[in-house]
Amino acid sequence: MSAKRTQYRFSFGPWNIDEGADPFGPPVRKPVALGRKIKALKKIGFDGMQFHDDDAVPDLDEKSPAQITRAARKLRKVLDGEGIVAEFTAPRLWFAPETVDGAYSSPNAKHRRYAIERSKKAIDIGNELGTSKLVLWFAREGTYIRESKNAREAILHLRDAMDALLDYDPNIRLLVEPKPNEPVDSALISTAGHALGLCYLLKDSDRAGILIESAHSILAGLDPSDDMAYALAHEKLWSVHLNDQGNLKFDQDKAFGAYNLRRAFNQVRVLEEAGYGQNDEWIGFDIKAMRTQKDVMPTKHLANSLATFNDLVRKVRSLDRKTEAKLIATRDYEELEQFTLCHLMGKRYR
Fold first, then answer.
1. Do 74 and 171 belong together in one domain?
2. Does 55 participate in catalysis according to the annotation?
3. Are residues 196 and 334 located together in one domain of the fold?
4. Which among 188, 221, 194, 273 has a CA at the least distance from the CA of 6?
5. pLDDT digits (tens, 9 = 90+) for 81-113
6. Which one from 52, 194, 241, 343 is the annotated catalytic residue?
7. Is 254 in contact with 245 (CB distance < 8 Å)?
8. CA neighbours within 13 Å on the CB side: how many for 39?
9. Are residues 286 and 327 in the same domain?
10. In terms of domains, do 109 and 65 share one?
11. Is 105 contained in some domain?
12. CA-to-CA dists, residue 212 to 18, 23, 108, 232, 339, angstroms
């Protein structure tokens, strides 16, 4: 357990103040301008924002390098003026016509080149915003029909693309964000283990790590705290997206701890005990307001998730470790479970 207590920093993305659209229906809230979202950050206790490349520079593919640079620098001034830091950038590689059949893993070499060049633009934007972290969510890196791709070759295409990005910028760090489903049926990089294995395929694996999202682990039938612990053991947990998930449903992005508070407690405990956050790691949230929430600019889900995280940090730090150790030593696991539940409920333990 880390002897030093972490002063956590928190971030979210513009997409987390959303219009309430889902795959089965239209938006139910009015769009909110990026500037207003940035101004809301500090008010609810956040210091950083996550960016897709086209969150920072809209219509990216239609702009020249000089136009991209000017737009990114303009945004940097806004962030600096509000005291906000960009945690990372991420190339949005799942909306372009060239990426319908995958981006880095597309069977079409021209489309693979597009994905790499688009990602280089995201790196350039990140440099202008002051971040060296590039998150790679492999949204369409998989198949809808297994026979459409040679999976081994597709994995090697992912490796080659990541090597090309590392070669492009010697300071960049790549964070792979695994997910088992959506939008493709069969994802190539579906779990933390897959993501770490891919990192070790790279020529410079020291500059590749992973981002764990709570819901993505749950969708794979796994416990997020175990995935986080596994990545921490490799010293490759470089960011998290905390949220919650009602088991094997669509990706719900529920407020952190809203569905399973004990599961949330164990995530916070793993991070706290490992000293996560003491080496430029952030606590990121990837959550959306309930679709039926009618606020014009909903931020309660973000403020509530932050409050839950901080409350659980206090629960971790106030845990009676001697009693816990005694119960573990005597293998009284039924009592250990009751002890844990009493602690979470604020009840006096017998």
1. yes
2. yes
3. no
4. 273
5. 999 999 999 999 999 999 999 999 999 999 999
6. 52
7. yes
8. 6
9. no
10. yes
11. yes
12. 22, 23, 29, 11, 28
Alpha-carbon separation of residue 303 from 87, 265, 299 (angstroms):
18, 17, 6
Q: Which domain holds residue 77?
A: 10-318
Judge whether 210 lies within some domain: yes
- What is the domain-level CATH number for residue 61? 3.20.20.150
Helical spans, DSSP H, in 83-213: 109-129, 151-168, 192-201
Q: H helices of the chain, where? A: 34-43, 53-56, 65-82, 109-129, 151-168, 192-201, 214-219, 224-233, 261-274, 300-317, 321-329, 333-345
Please give the angle made by the CA atoms of 115, 116 and 117, to the nearest 5 degrees: 95
Q: Is the pLDDT of residue 4 over 90?
A: no
Domain count, the chain: 2
Say what the pTM is.
0.96
52 is catalytic: yes
- What is the per-residue pLDDT for 296? 83
- Residue 297's alpha-carbon distances to 18, 34, 282, in angstroms, are 8, 11, 24
Which is catalytic among the residues 53, 54, 55, 227? 55
Please indicate, yes or no, whether residues 242 and 341 belong to a single structural domain of this protein: no
Asked if 231 and 224 touch (Cβ cutoff 8 Å), the reply is no
Q: Quickly tell me which residue has 């369409």 as its tokens.
A: 140
pLDDT in tens, 149-187: 999 999 999 999 999 999 999 999 999 999 998 899 999
The Cβ of residue 254 has, within 10 Å, a number of other Cβ atoms equal to 21
Residue 38 one-letter amino acid: I
Is 175 within a domain?
yes
Shared domain check, 298 and 250: yes
φ and ψ at residue 124, rounded to 5 degrees: -60, -40
Pull the structure tokens for residue 225.
Answer: 């705290």
Residues 159, 202 contacting (CB under 8 angstroms): yes
Residue 300 CA to residue 319 CA, distance in Å, equals 28
DSSP 8-state code for residue 325: H
